[in-house]
């Protein structure tokens, strides 16, 4: 008998194309296996991780593997669409690209010549924001932003203003050296593969992981200790940890003196117009008291040893160090665990124990890395001192109206421990770190027919940088960078539709959106937003006159567009994951990547970025046309190669042309650049020199390397800003100083919330919603298997999350007598929903939650009307409003962080009651027509040679 030969490793395809995943924001490397069918056409047969890629090293999650189903989705748009029925109906006719682009040009061309601000151009999580912002700036409208205002701008802005970078795309833990890892508010949708890989390495070494989150899922479920905190109290908990560490003397005094503004002198005279500002010399350099001389000196003077206890009397004014203010504030008994614990839902002794664990890891487990390095003062250090405790945080602490100050508090905590950029701690990824002052300020200067006077988004340093017109009214439709939300670094996308409908601060003509599902899960008060998009005036005309939308799929938002420009899937187009935008760097390496068309579209669709290139040429936008008016770029791929943001620096850093041939970083464009990326697996990477890998903000080896490679034009060492002068400048204005003053009704709020040291205050909805009537916190978080709406039509991912229940904690479950299969009515001050419920024991006792982006509107995404997502799935968004409830003062306050304007999704308070099971979840938003029909009941593909 002959033993049959079985191929245990069959090849899934005929060849492999290496590119970058698009199924979430990780940007992992993938191997796309392609196989020819009987007609000789290559088809996508299988997707797996690229083992050589620096981000995921071959690891790929369920979303990434399911990318094949995203590419084959029946919900894919097939051609440009022109609306034929009412908005929201989903009734369209297919048209050609020439007609579609002419319609856009005919609309936007005259508008640019007369009132470019009447174009509002906003994009979702498109991963090409340096390009889309460049286009909007060339057009001349001030109204551009991406999705960050309702995602995690609190996290980003707090990190930039405090230490020059933040979690997620800005940095990562030192996985190989940390001895304690603590996460706050982290779900499974962001940075998933790198975190999973890192957690695996920590578990293998026996390193403890502490998860702080009201909900125990995902990473918090595998944490060694779970802290089920009360939503919105993370900042109070963190400040109590700081209280404990200060009281025990477990802080890194040398680190604080050398690398932060803790020793910098602060003006303490309440009568001075510079009260609370930092003392500087004639060159604007911050002054410290030098321990060696006892005299004031510039913080960066050679040989200076800053004194944390410094004090100076000059010109009749007293100045004391920032550190003394820190000690006085956080040693106050108000932050003691026994005071804080009940509000946070954490036992006081547990707060003490966690503080002790942080101190033990940072100091008792400290070690020295045998690497000499020279700091910005010219002092050479023989080794690198480790503080092996690290943190990570995400939307859970960011999406609150106190999220900016909470994120700052977390950065203060890790800086007090001396762990940022130290071995074992949190490490920046190139091109970070860079201080807030190295970023542009926001611009809003409009001249008809001309580009905007500078970049739209940036980091204000005080009231003079606000985007206000001469009469003090907002210059932007979203009211970003105004007294209401002065430091809104990512804009306020969640306010665009309501402001445009109200004509406040002015009416717009065209709303141009890309990959932003504003009619569904990317807006607060979803049903109301749908009404605003369809509302008409007394003449029967739409209040928002024109809506242009681009997406790859038949989403809910498609139904509300007048013109739809169909995008490709991520396997059919060029993309650039650029150092100018959000690169794929690691702490030890600088890197960028591309996507490229591994297969050709089988529909009449075009990559949105290439469409913008075309429109830029048709409209004659600077940067998109040559001197003779001809198109400067053929498409987005041409732009990726030949555009230069400044001399020698373009979207892609790899394989440029230098004086002696190919080079990396700085160099002139190379016609073969994309081919070089493809040959190298879709990415470029260069390691940071070993002696430059730590202490990057102060390490001159890193600073000089960053200049050489083109990250900076000059070395920019700086101090971490524990005391934030920009915040204090706004407080001074609210106190009556300066020529630019806030409205009177905002003075008290600015003085309270824009404190130069991190503070905690209750979420703003707590002061508007009756805590007796609405005693329960309600949260929504992204599932690991789906990212935004993109997985809704994915045949594989739908099997993991076909619908979503509302999860209730044990006490609430038993109080209302719920059983499996029951339904509940959940009510807020803004609305109510009727939804299925489920029991979860590992949940904060006063919190309910659900997955976001699972529930769908009937007719969208090519789903059947009886699909579980449309029948039982639901959105918590119906209960949330972009404005807080009236409070009797005649004003409707924005439901946002008062500093950055981030949407306060997680401040929601509700009540719950048991109801008889209905036939479907409510509210019922009706059915929209589908321009792509319905998907098959059975999804199958077999590629046969």
UniProtKB/TrEMBL annotation:
The keyword Iron-sulfur applies. Its cofactor is [4Fe-4S] cluster. One of its GO terms (cellular component) is cell envelope. It is found in: Cell envelope. Keywords: 4Fe-4S, Iron, Iron-sulfur, Metal-binding, Oxidoreductase. Residues 14-75 form the 4Fe-4S Mo/W bis-MGD-type domain. Transmembrane segments: none annotated. Pfam families: Molybdop_Fe4S4, Molybdopterin, Molydop_binding. GO terms for molecular function: 4 iron, 4 sulfur cluster binding; metal ion binding; molybdopterin cofactor binding; oxidoreductase activity. This is Molydopterin dinucleotide binding domain-containing protein. It comes from Palleronia salina. The lineage of its organism: Bacteria, Pseudomonadati, Pseudomonadota, Alphaproteobacteria, Rhodobacterales.
